[in-house]
Amino acid sequence: MKGEYTEKVHAKRLIKMLKEYKASKLPYHCPAHVDFDIGYSTDKDWPGSTVYPCVVCRTFVGVNDVGFCPCVFFANARVARSKTIAALKKGGYIKSAADIYK
Known about the structure:
By secondary structure, the chain is mainly alpha-helical. It contains 4 helices and no strands. The chain is globular, with a radius of gyration of 12 Å.
């Protein structure tokens, strides 16, 4: 993919991913990966970005002090999903979880 991986890009891809994978557990898909593949994003996914996608993701949900995936940090799909929804609401990307789970 081309361009900068920003919070806005991350939020847009998160919403799309959550809509597509409603039934699955959040930690098993990555919004920065092409087609939301399972596993961690790599710099190959966003070669034009000056910011590593994982840093954007960690900052988005407020765990930028950890050096690994927030979903692994939360160690619970329900908590990861809850923190993600809260961050999407706080950023003004959605009004409620119903915006995703229609």
